[in-house]
Amino acid sequence: MRSIVAVTNEMDDAEVAVGELVEQINARGPLGKNSCGFVFCDVEMTHEDFMARLKEKLPFDIVGCTSIANFDTNNGATILSSVLTVLTGDDVRFGTALTDAINAGNIKEELEKAYKTVIDAAGGRGEILFLTPPFNNVVPLDEYVNILDELSGGTPIFGGLPSSNLADGDILMFANGKVHSDRAVLVLISGDVKPVFSVQNFLSEISQHKHIVTGAEKNVIRTVEGMTFVDYLRHLGMPVDTLIAQGDLAIYVSTPLKVYLSSKNERDKIPVARTIKTLNPEDGSGVLFGAISENSAISIVTMKRQDIQASCNMAIREIKEKIAAASEDGRKYSTVICISCGGRYMVMGEDKAVEGYMLKGNIPEDLTISGFYAYGEICPTIVENGRALNRVHNESIVICAM
Questions:
Q1: What is the pLDDT of residues 139-155, one digit of tens each?
Q2: Residues 84, 63: Cα–Cα separation, whole Å
């Protein structure tokens, strides 16, 4: 399998934007027997016209989503761009599927139907499953991953929750030439492909002392050692009342929770970060961007600029080591797809492009680079004996190489 990455900065004229992308793809062809495209778009794009024209001009399925910023081979990380990655080859097969509108009552049924569609098209279980779910407050991101992990028997799942610098309604998924805000997109790749992964979420400790979650459900944390979550944050000295009044997501992003999840499936023992989304002053609970379980151990940490740079460097080093190890049998890697937390993008302030520059400067030149900034990152932490431990991350950078 090989990859082609095309980029356009045209946001106003969909015809021109699609023309630029198609011209770049044709110049870097030829395409193999089977192909699939992933497109990541700035929210400023006229998405409906853009996706309809892409479907008309290119003879393969294209899926994707909106993002506050994108990664690409030529520029590192940029805003006001659309990045199209085409994976193509004679020795791989692609299965794509789009669910109907997702809600808490139909998520399992919808994912089961979509998963059957992709395995039928890909000809089996596959080697990697890409997931782009809708952004809403009804279904936590972890539910998508947990259901698909069970359905697939531990196939590696990689992807992220789309992002936007505008209102929630502008967070969109793309499939079949159309635009959606309430559906999940799946892509399964089977054949001669061996993905490798890296996850890093280096954070600075405020306190080494951990506290036990005594009340939680899905992505809602209610009590910590007998205190409401809001009172727990007050106990640690956080200006909770001011944060609630301001709805200050920037503060929540820069002071996430470090969580040691309590679950029989968390056999890697690797802590995850969880960003606070909202706090409820009435019942003292908090909504997180990822799930949390009772009996988990938590602490408050900070994410600083140097943490972001250090974790990006570690992720790049690890993925290069895994590529080198997997290439010993003559396998040639073609592409790196990076998904980083939108919170990391916010915290970097004037240095928002730093992760993109680091990727561009350190990933081997014969590999393409693409990806986007997400509101939740999906990546396995372990793949053993063909089964992945698929996890949802916040405040993290995740990389997949194929």
A1: 889 999 999 999 999 99
A2: 10
Q: Nearest-CA neighbor of 41 among 162, 135, 134, 132?
A: 162
**Residue 247 region by backbone torsions, left for phi larger than 0, else alpha for psi between -120 and 50, else beta:** left
- Residue 66 structure tokens: 């909106």
- State whether residue 277 is helix, strand or coil: strand
Q: Examine the fold and report which residue of 302, 328, 354 is the final residue of a domain before the chain moves on.
A: 302
| Residue pointed to by tokens 């019942």 | 283
User: Rounded to the nearest 5°, which phi and psi values hold at 344?
Assistant: -65, -40
Q: What's the distance, CA 138 to chain centroid? A: 19
Q: Could you tell me the two tokens for 381?
A: 């932490």
Task: Domain of residue 210: give its range.
Answer: 204-302
Over residues 232-250, the pLDDT tens digits come to 999 888 888 887 877 666 6
- Strands 211-217 and 34-42 come out as unpaired
Contact present, 281 and 230 (Cβ < 8 Å): yes
63 shares its domain with 181: yes
Q: Which of 88-97, 269-278, 312-321 has the lowest mean pLDDT?
A: 269-278
Measure CA 99 to chain center: 18
CA distances from 219 to 20, 40, 154, 308 (A): 42, 27, 22, 24
Best CA proximity match to 162, nearest among 15, 380, 373: 373
Q: CB of 62 within 8 A of CB of 84? A: yes
- pTM for this structure? 0.90
Residue 273 has pLDDT above 80, yes or no: yes
Give yes or no for residue 266 having a pLDDT over 70: no
Are 40 and 171 found together in one domain?
A: yes
> Is there a single domain that holds both residue 99 and residue 149?
yes
SS3 assignment, position 87: strand
